[in-house]
Amino acid sequence: MRRACGFRGALAFSAALPLSGCTGDLSALDPAGPFAAAVADLWWLMLAGAAAIFLLVLGLFLLLLFRPGSGRRVSPAGWIWIGGVAFPLATLVALVGHGLMRGEYILGLAAGGDPVEVEARGSMWHWDFRYSGGARASRGVLHIPVGRTVVVTATSGDVIHSFWAPRLGGKIDAIPGHAATVRILADRPGVYGGVCSEYCGAGHEGMVFEVHAHPPEAFEAVLAGLPDEGEAAR
Amino acid sequence: MTRRSPSSALRLHRELTAIWATPPGWGRLKAVNHTTIGKRFMLTALVFFAIGGVLAMLIRTQLATTQSAFLDAAAYAQVFTMHGVVMMFLFAIPFFEGLAMYLLPKMLGSRDLAFPRMSAYGYWCYLFGGTFLVGALLAGVAPAGGWFMYTPLSSATHAPGINADVWLLGITFVEISALSAAVEVLVSILKLRAPGMSLTRMPVFAWYMLIVAGMMLIGFPPLILGSILLEAERAFGLPFFDPVRGGDPLLWQHLFWLFGHPEVYIIFLPAAGVLSTVIPTLARRPLEGYEIVVAAVIAVAFLSFGLWVHHMYTVGIPHVALSFFSAASGLVAVPTGVQVFAWLATLAHGRPRFSVPMLHVFGFLFVFVLGGLTGVMLAMVPFDWQAHDTHFVVAHLHYVLVGGFVFPMLAAAYYWLPHIFGRQPVQHLSHAAFWTIFIGFNLTFFAMHLTGLRGMPRRISTYPPEAGWETLNLVSSMGGFVMTTGFALVALDLLLLAVFGKPFRRNPWRAGTLEWAMPTPPPAYAFASLPEVPARADRLDPDRLGPALAAGKGYLGATRHGWMEVLGVDMVSGRPEQLVVLPRRTSLPLWTALATGSVFALLLFKLYWLALPALLVVTALFLLWTRDCGLRTDLADLPVGHGPDLPHHYQSERPPSYWAMIFTLAADATLYASLLFGALFLWLSAPGWPPGLAIPLGAFTAAAVAAALAVAAVSVRSADGGTAGRLCVAALAYAAALVVLVAFLADIRGAAVRHAAVASVFAVTSYAVLHVAVGLVLSLFCVWRVGSGHVSARRDLDLRLARLWHMFTLVTGLAATAFPFVLNVLTGGAGP
């Protein structure tokens, strides 16, 4: 996945922005699991399509401006119906359909398995994670097993926060009075960054966390070693 | 009545100027003329643009390096919040309002807008509201929760200072200005056009503004309602957004984005209207696909109200529901594509010439197409789960708003400044200024897409070195300063134009629209006589029309009684149907705006017992406006220079004020519908429902109020000898309803702070109280008007306007009395 990203990244940006790349433990372009990878792939696809459409429209504009008369062969109605209606409609139907399928995949409606359930509770300005209904807890570090889908239920006791571990999956808002879920999945062990991505007051930028992805057997051991909720908060 | 044939264009000019012009010195405070007010709006908006730009530079300075200590997190929060607030509410909307005010009467072949004093009032409200917000920033108490002010961060618990109140009250104050402008633009476009200008002959810019004004009428009330509810929660503890007491933070998001998304198109469409006007002139060919472009704009308007949830993909709404909004968000690219390709078709079949406005059209297309494409990306739900609330979104929205608004407005500036100043550009700096802005902009925001995808969230004030975002941020910051230099160059360029530009005779662009058929800079009365429009109004010949109109050969080519006269036409066909006599210049709008501002200031400082008398002062001042409106004797139809004689508007069936009342009530109804749906939303979605306490029903209240409103509504019928007596009956009925409703409010006040269900009943009842109180005032006002001789069988406009209000109050009041019962049934009937 990293190599594919690097190749396409170089393709897309190296000419314009030599500083681009896929480093950093928060980069959504450097996925470490299939959910983040599905979105990264969608991005590269859309980038290629967008670049083509952009060049087409700008090219037409400059052509018409600097080669007057070059667009006369197509009638005005032809310009509007082909360029303004048929073309975007066809592109959008394909893209919206594709995006919908990606979304269904990430939501795991097709996938079965045995997901791990954790609660991520945002408070000004830290994250508390609860496992097994509160019997185990940790603050600032979320422990997950490699290769198993993790369903994160985000809650909040004060203002709106948003749970986001970019390399593992999308984000979900932690809204007081609500409990919404997001699915993350790491396909190799490692330490991945996470941030709060909804502005939540003066300590917003400090509200970071880490996701530690452990091999399955190590995960059980780590979990067993965690304190319960009351101790973790201290 | 004397009608003199115009002896010369010069004499007519002198007579009209004496009637229409704004006097010098302190007299400027009395200005109501659309040219003057339009220029003031634009100039003030540019000052706020500069302030917003300085704030942007503070943001870029802060983010240029890692672990920056330039601003602390609290100051940074005020800076980024106010940057958004200033640019959206104090620059973009007022600027296009000013442009529309300046241009519309001239493009439509009229002499002014329908309610010149309302324009002046709107301007003063905007100026005071904006100054108030910027003053709060200087005092260090500016709002700090982001420009969309999500609750509970902006609720009293987490934002105890007055910062959030400054936002809620200041923005509501400015919104009054925007709503009054929307009503005025709608009525002016529909009623005050040149004879013969049917809807299908309107210049396309007027179509755009008509649709935009309609969107403002429907789009702004949800935000005003949200602001009122949040302020009520902060000030009085009514828990609409508090999940512990039956409220829901998501209610705020729905109300905000129900306004906030149409808002984006409300800002873009006037700019698109400019492009649809400027591109055909520069291509030397009328706009291709005029009808389909109008249809596309209407489609955008409808779609824009079905997209707001795409700002809320990450709040946990089911994916199937999101996919509907995703498809709608993508779909809006089609009508936008139609407009872009209509412009390309116009260029393809015209003979385009390259000029400074065309350079900015290029800037628009380059930047806006990129912004549109990233918009389609963000409309895809899974991608938004990653990109939402990152710098990718910041990049996207700047591409859309700068591309879709700033570049077209720069094109507009270079295109119409010759009209405003009567001088043509010197062009020494124009190209350099454009390229500096263009390169600076793309440096700043292109890099920012990548910053966001690499994980940088919005609104963080510092970031660690190991995040790897520093180089990209430094590029953005340098680009930002380059862009600022570009804007400084534009300012200098335009100043040079105003001072050293070459004067010209007429119509430098060889345009086919009416605004060029007048001397430049334009006289206060715009047209010395009004044209007859025989063709689509972007295919006219200003060079031939101008001299004829100046010589008084059109409609209304003479003065009488010192009246400010324009023609009112049939909305659809453009057939003249009434002579509209506009009110004279006055300083009342200024005083009324000052009084309105003092109400908001008193609310801000929680001096509620003083706010009530201040509100009465505002009401009294508004009533004073009517002193020189209307007629005391029946008039025969009046000659207008050509065609049949026309009635004075005060004696016509559907004068502009009638339509203004209809549109105001439409906005009012939208606010009410938002309130009722808000309550239903809480019932459906909020935690803590059904409420653990009884919903107060008040059967006696309901019966008494329903009876009183019915009495009031039927007592105000035709104008005859018994009118004053019947009006007094109506006033008494309203007074009775008011007493009963206020007693009910006092009764449920304690329960209203305990649960949002009761708070909703409180809010709906308060809405009824406000309408009953206005009904009472209107009844007494009509008694006064009957007494002062303004009412006869032929002059019953005041009564008819009031009757619209009475009917509206009857319907909404009945709904309000039924509301607790409905809520009681929905929540399982816990009520007494």
TrEMBL record, chain A:
PROSITE patterns: COX2 (PS00078), COX2_CUA (PS50857). Its EC number is 7.1.1.9. The chain crosses the membrane at residues 42-66, 78-101. It is an enzyme of class 7 (translocase). Its main location: membrane. Pfam families: COX2 (PF00116). It is found in: Membrane. Keywords: Copper, Electron transport, Membrane, Metal-binding, Respiratory chain, Translocase, Transmembrane, Transmembrane helix, Transport. Subunits I and II form the functional core of the enzyme complex. Electrons originating in cytochrome c are transferred via heme a and Cu(A) to the binuclear center formed by heme a3 and Cu(B). PANTHER family: CYTOCHROME C OXIDASE SUBUNIT 2, CYTOCHROME C OXIDASE, SUBUNIT II. Belongs to the cytochrome c oxidase subunit 2 family. This is cytochrome-c oxidase. It comes from Shinella pollutisoli. The lineage of its organism: Bacteria, Pseudomonadati, Pseudomonadota, Alphaproteobacteria, Hyphomicrobiales.
Automatic annotation (TrEMBL), chain B:
The chain crosses the membrane at residues 41-59, 79-104, 124-146, 166-192, 204-230, 264-283, 290-309, 321-347, 359-381, 393-417, 429-452, 472-500, 588-604, 610-626, 658-683, 695-715, 727-746, 758-783, 804-826. Residues 14-534 form the Cytochrome oxidase subunit I profile domain. Pathway: Energy metabolism; oxidative phosphorylation. It is found in: Cell membrane. It catalyses: 4 Fe(II)-[cytochrome c] + O2 + 8 H(+)(in) = 4 Fe(III)-[cytochrome c] + 2 H2O + 4 H(+)(out). It holds the Pfam family COX1. SUPFAM superfamilies: Cytochrome c oxidase subunit I-like, Cytochrome c oxidase subunit III-like. Keywords: Cell membrane, Copper, Electron transport, Heme, Iron, Membrane, Metal-binding, Respiratory chain, Translocase, Transmembrane, Transmembrane helix, Transport. Its EC number is 7.1.1.9. Its main location: membrane. It is a multi-pass membrane protein. The keyword Protein transport does not apply. Belongs to the heme-copper respiratory oxidase family. This is cytochrome-c oxidase.
